[in-house]
């Protein structure tokens, strides 16, 4: 059993090292730099976890020598959450407070030998991975319906969802242990699950593809060519008519499922038309882009100078002024009022 465990841990560490080697050249990737950096940090912390969670370390070493590894392993929960966000949120950006949060969690785990009273620290030690696993799952489930990239919906959902299940399973196994350490069988199950997840990711990263590391083309510099599939062409024409003449984007609470039903087409086909035909990666971003385009036109129209910003926001499909202001500022760098004043002054 010990030899099998050691072999699996060696394979896991080798795979994680290969993943890091594959990612390092893409440290400044134009679109995925933050995902690359989070992934490298997660892979490195999992190498430490693979070593610190081995039966020999947990059962033969005293608390103090294990403490740094425990801290880094606990910090993996934060990195997993950031990884899930970087995978599924197209606009995700690493912030300084993300690093501060990781450092705080890692420092807490590294003080495992100093806890007093011990039970409070023990509860937090088990709660932190569960909380961040649930946050990771929320990053999967939340944008699932509006994600237009089929490969990401299939593969990355399995990877991130599997990671959440793994984290919760590890907490359960440690809670059931009298002293919080893993038995030989549990440790073997731990490394086997982690190796499986890593193999899925490594297979995706290391397999040669014409599209490059990520298996998805860069955004086109010009509008994508029209769909060649006859049904896709019909859906694209119906969508264009609904969104232009019918102002379909202005309906509050518009969803991909509702729009597909309105057009009488399956969701998968509508996703393909919007993603591959129109070049959008996220349904909400596509709809909000149409809404903001009309809002900017109307804010710059002298004839609508007296119309309140709120009225325009509601009329183009935003449910309230808050989301409208945030989306408008993110798109233009100006508030709607500032944009109107500048546009009217220029005219």
UniProtKB/TrEMBL annotation:
The chain crosses the membrane at residues 6-24, 36-57, 69-88, 100-117, 123-143, 155-175, 187-207. Keywords: DNA-binding, Membrane, Transcription, Transcription regulation, Transmembrane, Transmembrane helix. Residues 232-342 form the HTH araC/xylS-type domain. This is Helix-turn-helix domain-containing protein. InterPro entries: Homeodomain-like_sf, HTH_AraC, HTH_AraC-typ_CS. The keyword Transcription applies. It comes from the Bacteria. It comes from Pelomonas candidula.
């Amino acid at each position: 059993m010990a030899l099998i465990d050691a072999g699996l841990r060696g394979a896991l560490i080798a795979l994680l090292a290969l993943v890091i080697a594959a990612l390092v050249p893409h440290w400044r990737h134009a679109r995925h730099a933050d995902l690359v950096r989070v992934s490298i940090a997660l892979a490195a912390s999992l190498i430490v976890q693979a070593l610190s969670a081995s039966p020999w370390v947990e059962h033969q070493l005293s608390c103090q020598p294990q403490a740094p590894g425990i801290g880094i392993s606990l910090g993996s929960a934060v990195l997993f959450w950031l990884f899930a966000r970087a995978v599924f949120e197209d606009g995700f950006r690493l912030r300084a407070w993300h690093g501060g949060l990781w450092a705080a969690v890692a420092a807490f785990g590294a003080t495992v030998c100093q806890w007093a009273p011990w039970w409070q620290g023990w509860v937090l030690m088990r709660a932190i991975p569960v909380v961040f696993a649930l946050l990771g799952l929320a990053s999967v489930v939340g944008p699932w319906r509006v994600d237009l990239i089929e490969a990401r919906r299939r593969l990355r959902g399995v990877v991130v969802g599997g990671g959440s299940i793994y984290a919760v399973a590890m907490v359960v196994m440690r809670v059931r242990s009298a002293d919080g350490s893993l038995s030989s069988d549990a440790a073997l199950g731990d490394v086997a699950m982690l190796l499986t997840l890593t193999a899925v990711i490594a297979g995706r990263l290391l397999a040669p593809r014409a599209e490059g590391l990520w298996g998805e083309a860069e955004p086109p510099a010009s509008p994508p060519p029209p769909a060649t599939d006859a049904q896709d062409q019909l859906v694209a024409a119906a969508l264009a008519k609904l969104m232009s003449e019918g102002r379909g984007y202005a309906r509050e609470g518009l969803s991909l499922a509702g729009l597909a039903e309105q057009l009488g087409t399956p969701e998968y086909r509508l996703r393909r038309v919007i993603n591959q035909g129109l070049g959008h990666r996220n349904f909400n971003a596509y709809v909000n882009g149409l809404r903001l385009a009309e809002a900017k036109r109307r804010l710059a129209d002298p004839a609508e100078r007296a119309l309140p910003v709120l009225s325009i926001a509601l009329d183009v499909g935003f449910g309230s002024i808050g989301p409208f202001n945030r989306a408008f500022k993110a798109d233009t760098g100006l508030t709607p009022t500032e944009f109107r004043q500048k546009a009217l002054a220029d005219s």
